Amino acid sequence: MKTLVYTSIIALLAHAAWAEEIPVNSAITAATVYPQGAKVTRMVPFDMDAGAHQLIIADLPDAFDFSTLRIVGEGDFTLGTFEMRRNNLPPSEPVATPESRAIEAEIERLEDAVQAKDYEVEAATQRQRAAEAQIAFLNAIGQSKAADQLDSASVDDLRAIAAMIGEETNAALAAALQARIDATALRGESNDLREELADARQRLAALLLPENDSPRLSIAVSAEAATSGMLEISYLVGPAFWRPVYDVSLSLGQTPALVVDRNIQVLQDTGENWENVALTLSTAMPSAQSAPSEIYPLIARIGAPVQFEAADSMGAIALAAPAPMVMAEEAARARVSVAVASFQGQTIVYSMPNAVSLAGDGTEVQLALDSKALEVDVTALAVPASDATAFYMAEITNGSGEILLPGNARLFRDGAMIGEAQLPLTAAGKTIDLPFGAIEGLLVSRRILSREEGDTGVFTSSNRRGDRFEITAENVTGLPYDLRILDRVPVSEQEDLTVNVTANPRISATEVDGKRGVVAWDLTLSPGQEQTITFGYELGWPSDMELYMDGN
């Protein structure tokens, strides 16, 4: 047994004239799908006589990356150069496949069955004609006997003749009727067979389409004696991808539980179907609100006083208001969280346990991967500056023993779908936070108790500014809740700008999630309980400077 491997660089070599071209068929047996693109593997069995030949494969797809073509040969033969013939192709006969050969055998069987059934119909028709001829003969005999013997024959003789003719006629009539019934039934069976035959011929015609426009792979092979061999051909195609999809189900109760059902969505749009292939998924290369609103740092800064320019001839006054204030706010609103998976020499591969079929027209198929129960801690989170209710937040520990890849997660709470979220890349043992919808009976509000004049993009001339707020949290449910409330206070990036923050009750955490100025209060609310938070800040800066607030 010889095993040889050749890559597509060999195709750059000139090939000699070969004694014989041998058309062969290939079949897709395996595919490895990546997050973008796929590797397709085809097996090509062949038989060859001694000498040098060219194997011609005409059933390859029109579009694939020829530079990635890789050929492995197994058998007592030698592989030479190979090339793709795309131009000036000679007309080719349709290439037979195992499926087409099976249909051809079915057509031959049906043709024989139709012919046999036609013979049976003809035999039944002949039996009917014979019976009808017998009836006519008996009628003629009856008439002749009656005319010849009416005067001389006795009554008993006439009765015997009449009985004989009647008995034979009755038998002939029964035989003719049965033959007609048989012929009718046989014609019906024959018509059914003809319909099956027409369908089989149509299926064969669809399979054996002309291959004139398809590229043909020519592979040089030689052997010292007649032999059989096998080629394994693999190459990359572009229009294919897979992605993970998660169903994350949270069950509330005295002890919350969480189950993650992992699924795979995969498709390919190469134009040819992958029938019953060994599918591998590789990470190589690699509408209601369901979450609390995002909160961003509140940046305070000071700068030189704004200078007013002279009015123009129409009396308009140009105000040199600083643009960065507006730009900063716009940038904050446009911020989008994007998860990017990056693997450093680490590849995850999923091999499907059963053969999979994928249509070549981009039809998406979802495959179940597995289901895992993960440890979860459920809390309530509220952002009163933006939302009127708190939200369930689940801190999930990845105890699956492997990386959870980034993907879309459908979120279910106590069996009801409450939204979707993007699951980030999560290493084994790490935690992630997922939202699970609003807690309708856990109400929050925020109001301004006092504020000096000025708003986003507006400046004040005073060297002191103080704002005070009141947050109210009320639990109108029948369950107790541990509630975290988020808000923000100004952040100074300059030594001459001071910020003093006061709060009652005291702030529980600062720089939440690494965000400057984002603060949190951790409360426990019993059923029916209401709690109020008051907080504020005072900013101070030199009298020759002015205050600009990026935010409100």
Descriptive account of the structure:
Helix 1 (98-149) runs antiparallel to helix 2 (155-207). The longest helix has 53 residues, at 155-207. Mean pLDDT is 78; it is low at 1-18, 308-345 and 454-458. It is elongated, with a radius of gyration of 43 Å. It is of the alpha+beta class and 552 residues long. The protein folds into 3 domains: 2-95 and 209-238, no CATH class; 99-207; 287-345 and 377-550, no CATH class. It is 21% helix and 43% strand. Strands 10, 11, 16, 17, 18, 19, 20, 21, 22, 24, 25, 26 and 27 form a 13-stranded mixed β-sheet that branches.
Give short descriptive properties of this protein.
552 residues, alpha+beta, 13-stranded mixed sheet, disordered N terminus
Give a quick summary of the entry:
Helix 1 packs antiparallel against helix 2 (155-207).
Topology (elements, then pairings):
Blueprint: E1 2-7, E2 20-24, E3 27-33, E4 38-48, E5 51-57, E6 65-75, E7 78-85, H1 98-149, H2 155-207, E8 216-223, E9 227-237, E10 240-251, E11 257-268, E12 274-282, E13 298-303, H3 324-333, E14 349-351, E15 356-358, E16 365-382, E17 389-397, E18 407-413, E19 416-423, E20 431-450, E21 464-475, E22 481-488, E23 490-492, E24 498-504, E25 509-510, E26 518-525, E27 530-540, E28 546-550
Parallel strand pairs: 2-5, 3-12, 10-18, 13-23, 16-22
Antiparallel strand pairs: 1-6, 3-4, 4-9, 5-8, 6-9, 7-8, 10-11, 11-16, 12-14, 12-15, 13-28, 16-17, 17-20, 18-19, 20-21, 21-27, 22-26, 24-27, 25-26
Helix pairs in contact: 1-2
